[in-house]
Amino acid sequence: GEDVEQSLFLSVREGDSSVINCTYTDSSSTYLYWYKQEPGAGLQLLTYIFSNMDMKQDQRLTVLLNKKDKHLSLRIADTQTGDSAIYFCARMTTDSWGKLQFGAGTQVVVTP
Amino acid sequence: DTGVSQNPRHKITKRGQNVTFRCDPISEHNRLYWYRQTLGQGPEFLTYFQNEAQLEKSRLLSDRFSAERPKGSFSTLEIQRTEQGDSAMYLCASSFQGDGYTFGSGTRLTVV
């Protein structure tokens, strides 16, 4: 089964906060990433968190990591229409030579 | 440096033909990765190079697939006798020892 799982779809109103969730099964994860993908484009790194951290904030983005529950979330404050995209959670482990394992992605649709 | 460059952006080929994609990583990056992304899924790891050495290959990489990085700079991914199931976005990424992980915009392959 999937080692990294995400909900598939999120609809949010412009100006509200979005919260995208991700769970993973392998506790050996060292880095956990959030990527954004717009239609027909490659992957844009949004932010990442090291597994010994609980929280990281970067402007409108807040990442929360619950290591006990193996749960990662990305909160986008004041969501804008330009935030509409697919968001991928990914993990990297120390023994994987930088190989990333991705979830299936969460499609975020921002409505006016 | 303009980031990771992939060519071509799009490729349409008939079933049974061979295709080759090229990836030019960020110049100082020693690691290069290939991923495949099918519709509605996250990217899946295919293979990884450290300099010119191919260090890991996924079981997804059948014997019809071959990747090279002859001088430790650009890389090519060749698919022989293409099948419709090979239709996907092929993404390349590079990093320096796992840091600065950057994806290219991908090559979209359509096999008809």
Considering residues with a beta carbon less than 8 A from a beta carbon on another chain, report the largest interface and each chain's count. Answer: A-B, 21 and 25 residues
Oligomer: heterodimer
Derived structural class of chain A:
mainly beta
Q: Note the beta-strand portion of chain B.
A: over 45%
Shape of chain B: globular
Q: How many DSSP E strands of chain A?
A: 11
Low-confidence stretches of chain B: none
Q: Report the strand count of chain B.
A: 11
Poorly predicted segments of chain A: none
The number of helical runs of chain A is 0
Helical content of chain A (DSSP H or I, runs of 4+) = under 10%
Global morphology of chain A: globular
* Class based on secondary structure composition and strand pairing of chain B: mainly beta
Overall mean pLDDT of chain A: 91
Explain how this protein is built.
The complex is a heterodimer of chains A (112) and B (112). Chain A starts with a strand and ends with a strand. The radius of gyration of chain A is 13 Å and the shape is globular. By secondary structure, chain A is an all-beta fold. Chain A is built from no helices and eleven strands. The model of chain A has no long low-confidence stretch (mean pLDDT 91). Chain B is 0% helix and 54% strand. Chain B has no helices and eleven strands. In chain B, the strands form two sheets. In chain B, strands 2, 4, 5, 6, 9, 10 and 11 form a seven-stranded mixed beta sheet that branches. A four-stranded antiparallel beta sheet of chain B has the order 1-3-8-7, with no helix packed on it. Chain B is globular, with a radius of gyration of 13 Å. Chain B starts with a strand and ends with a strand. The interface between A and B is medium-sized, with 21 and 25 residues.
